[in-house]
TrEMBL record:
Transmembrane segments: none annotated. This is DinB superfamily protein. It comes from Algoriphagus aquimarinus. InterPro entries: DinB-like (IPR024775), DinB/YfiT-like (IPR034660). Residues 32-165 form the DinB-like domain. Pfam families: DinB_2.
Length: 171
């Protein structure tokens, strides 16, 4: 895989800075695979009851968090594809709460969600491999803010790490 260097400031809105601070280095593919392995290990160690239990009233279960991560990665990947292809229209934001509510992740077997997560990661990596290098820095607009495909790709592992840290701290 080509080296996917991290985005520079200005390639994304300040909102995403906290996610991007959670990733380092430029071995993108290795980071994504390490995250898959860590997630699979965590869910295997914790078991099915853990995956279905929120840490507090009104909070998502680990299954719902995983579903949210998958949805977010799909949306970020779609946005990156659009902008890499030269899309000029602004793409809308999304409200994560109705997405999780309407998805009913709690009804899905955890094995399906874990398989879906792995499939999303594989699709992401194969897409990046075939994108022209210069398309990674084309600027599009999402949620009213300018952003590049490169930034969107790096937000994905940062967003994952954010939620993994919450799993470790609160669940």
């Amino acid at each position: 895989m080509k080296t996917l260097v991290q985005p520079k400031e200005g390639d994304y809105s300040a909102f995403f800075s906290n996610y991007l601070k959670l990733v380092s280095g430029n071995n993108y593919e290795e980071q994504l695979q390490n995250q898959v392995n860590e997630l699979l290990k965590l869910f295997k160690e914790k078991g099915k009851d853990w995956a279905e239990t929120a840490y507090a009233e009104g909070k998502w279960t680990p299954k719902e968090v995983l579903g949210h991560v998958i949805d977010t990665e799909r949306i970020m990947t779609f946005r990156a594809l659009c902008f890499a292809r030269g899309e000029k229209s602004s793409l809308p934001g999304f409200d994560q709460d109705p997405y999780v509510l309407n998805a009913r992740f709690g009804q899905a077997p955890i094995e399906y969600l874990l398989e879906d997560f792995q499939a999303q990661r594989k699709a992401l990596l194969t897409m990046i491999r075939i994108l022209p290098e210069d398309s990674l820095d084309l600027v599009g607009r999402a949620s009213g803010n300018p952003i590049t495909p490169r930034a969107l790709f790096w937000i994905i592992p940062g967003h994952f790490t954010h939620h993994l840290n919450i799993f470790k701290e609160r669940y």
